[in-house]
Amino acid sequence: MPDYHSGIASTGVKDTINGRYGDVIFATDGGISVYTENGTWYSVNARNPGETAYGSLAPLETMVTAVALDPDGRLWLGYPNGLQIGDGTGYRAVKDLDLLKNLNVNCIARWGDEMWIATGRAGLHRYQDGEWTWYKPAGPENLGCYTIVSMAVDAASDALVIGSESDGIRVLRDRTGDARFEQVTYGSDTLRRVSGVRVDPFGGVYLFNRTTVLHYAPDAGVTPVLNAGNLSAFPVVINDVATTADGTLYIASDNGIYRWNSSGVVRHITSGDGIRANAVKKLFVDAYGRCWFVVPGNVGYIPPTAGHATLDLSAVPVPTPVVTETPLPQTPVPAATPGEAAGLFDGVWAFFEGLFGAVNSG
């Protein structure tokens, strides 16, 4: 029986956002999990509904595919079978095919006072002031994408950038008046094999696939950042990217996490450094600058380095998975490994929140 009070519901993390109360909210294949400002966890799912800081929640499904906050701080939750929208005390379900042309929610993004929802192969939906608008893949607005898998708003240019499964990248520069999506290209390359989009806090967005990371800004166009060969002499697969407030780019790969700046790789963090597995699936930098990472069976974070004179990283032993005792983050102490030199990777250590290998969805 999973413990939905002391750990994350599942390491099948689908989406992550910063909450309203200093918390971090995870959408997982085992439900919604919240890491509170106080360093505690709670979770709810379809079989374990309950009270949250965002109202009483009985999820539509155990798997939650997307999560976002709207301009009023209400929680929007996406599922394979519809959408839920909080109203401060409870939630209403949106399962009407007149509103959502496909109920399988891929991703959700807030853009100003609007909410944008990508579903199945049905393109994109916009919600504003109670009105729903559907942008179909082959519609007159030139969306040109069927399965949209990621979205990010570039605050610097006030543009919505969209990544699709196999139809490339689109940008919407103006949300007033008639929408008109533009295809993003790099020279003659239509970027059809690029689907990932992540915000760059310094303006623009990062675009990525398994081998390449690009930067895109509507005014500057596409600029190459790196390819997998820049990370390692051996083949690696890029799974995700995230950027810290100081501009450091983290790259999740099947060979650990790389920290990258303008001079190249400045850190390479592997299982031997405490992240427990080299196959890093997802990254998320929260409001406190912690870089959360997801590896098979575990979720943890790398504390921010700013303000820390020196942090010595030591390998964290992998204990037998338990689900009832979760270490709290206020007093992290790196575990010593006999024979391993302390200080080898100054500036970083990995800290884990719960052990999840034995946790099943409710």
Low-confidence stretches: 306-349, 353-362
Q: What's the story with the biggest beta sheet?
A: 4 strands, antiparallel
Number of helices: 1
Query: What is the mean pLDDT?
Result: 86
Tally the beta strands.
Answer: 30
SSE inventory with pairings:
Elements: E1 13-18, E2 24-28, E3 31-35, E4 41-44, E5 50-52, E6 55-57, E7 66-69, E8 75-79, E9 82-86, E10 91-94, E11 105-111, E12 114-119, E13 124-128, E14 131-135, E15 148-154, E16 159-164, E17 169-172, E18 182-184, E19 196-199, E20 205-208, E21 212-217, E22 221-227, H1 228-231, E23 238-243, E24 249-253, E25 256-261, E26 264-269, E27 282-285, E28 291-295, E29 298-302, E30 351-355
Antiparallel strand pairs: 1-2, 2-3, 3-4, 5-6, 7-8, 8-9, 9-10, 11-12, 12-13, 13-14, 15-16, 16-17, 17-18, 19-20, 20-21, 21-22, 23-24, 24-25, 25-26, 27-28, 28-29, 29-30
Provide an overview of this structure.
The protein has a 4-stranded antiparallel beta sheet with strand order 1-2-3-4, with no helix packed on it. Strands 7-8-9-10 form a 4-stranded antiparallel beta sheet, with no helix packed on it. The chain has a 4-stranded antiparallel beta sheet with strand order 11-12-13-14, with no helix packed on it. The longest helix has 4 residues, at 228-231. The radius of gyration is 20 Å and the shape is globular. The chain is built from 1 helix and 30 strands. Mean pLDDT is 86; it is low at 306-349 and 353-362. With 362 residues, it is mostly beta strands.
